[in-house]
Amino acid sequence: MGIPGDIRKKYPYLDNETILMGYRGSIAHGMYLPKEDPHSIDDKDVMAVIVPPIEYYFGLREWGSKGTREIFHNEWDIVSYELRKMLRLLAKGNPNVLSLLWLPDNLYIKRTEWGDMMIDNRSLFATRSVYHSFSGYAHGQLHRMTHYKFEGYMGQKRKALVDKYGYDCKNAAHLIRLLRMGIEFLNEGTLYVTRQDAQQLLDIKKGEWTLEKVKEESDRLFRRAEEAYDHSKLPDKPDMEKVNRLSVDILRRAHETIPPTLEK
Predict the structure, then answer these.
(1) Quick one: angle between helices 169-188 and 211-231, nearest 10?
(2) I want to staple 89 with a disulfide (CB 3.0 to 4.6 A). Which of 78, 94, 148, 155 is the partner?
(3) Domain co-membership, 25 together with 88
(4) SS3 of residue 76 by DSSP
(5) What is the total count of domains within the chain?
(6) Residues 9, 119: one domain?
């Protein structure tokens, strides 16, 4: 499965300026439900890292909105980050972007030598500080689980499922997954993106857990996450000097081959 040609034709930077691209979200976690499934409210989520032409670094133009562009096309949701924006998010321990550096090979759509430089240096972003971002995102999912907000082309179907089960099962599955991934990361320094517990998480996503059971499990995992943070042997925070050098090295090498062609 790859990005449809009509999307790539309309947004040529996906081919011309991308140094790393892979699946994220439910496809990456092994939890994707096709739209034919009565419980499906999933997009086909993709993330890309972009190095635009050098004029965007020396001129006055800004790439995207503060370094971000997002494409919504039917079930496709493709978010692209300019390299420096991506590295800043990685340094903050953002769970969504960290996953791109720990994907199995078969979930990458495009890899280049510069994208591989990011993957080869992913240990720079394995720090204890990820506890705050993972637990913060998990608290957000816990709140949204019972404070409903329905958006996108699946909004009405999602609302119907919430009405059926009494809470947002997709948020509940995200909550449990985030906490488990954060605990593993703090303990081992590795992000297990494709989940061995995918079937159990799918059970949650399909409403097979009660709201009370979800809350009990999340309470237990929040406590375990705090313990993992206290005992983690990872560095406290990223070495930003090394992250900065990585950025310079990638940009210098990439711009030796990326042509100076501005969008009209």
Answers:
(1) 20
(2) 94
(3) yes
(4) strand
(5) 2
(6) yes
Tens of pLDDT, residue by residue, the chain (264 residues): 689 999 999 999 999 999 999 999 999 999 988 877 767 777 899 999 999 999 899 888 889 999 999 999 988 999 999 999 999 999 999 999 999 999 999 999 999 999 999 999 999 999 999 999 999 999 999 888 877 665 554 567 777 888 888 889 989 999 999 999 999 999 999 999 999 999 999 999 999 999 999 999 999 999 999 999 999 999 999 999 999 999 999 999 999 887 655 454
Are 210 and 164 within one domain? yes
Helix axes 169-188, 155-165, angle to 10 degrees: 90
Classify 143 as helix, strand or coil. helix
Answer yes or no: do 245 and 204 share one domain.
no
Q: Across-strand partners of 45?
A: 77
Instruction: Sort strands 76-82 and 44-50 into parallel, antiparallel or unpaired.
Output: parallel
Describe the strand order of the beta sheet including 44-50 as a list of residue ranges: 68-73, 76-82, 44-50, 18-23, 108-111
Distance CA 77, CA 182 (A): 24
Q: Do 15 and 120 belong to one domain? A: yes
Does a structural domain hold residue 263?
A: no
Say yes or no: 134 and 120 in one domain: no
Residue 24, helix vs strand vs coil: coil
Task: Name the residue with tokens 């999340």.
Answer: 218
Domain containing 160 equals 130-231
The answer to whether position 20 is within a domain reads yes
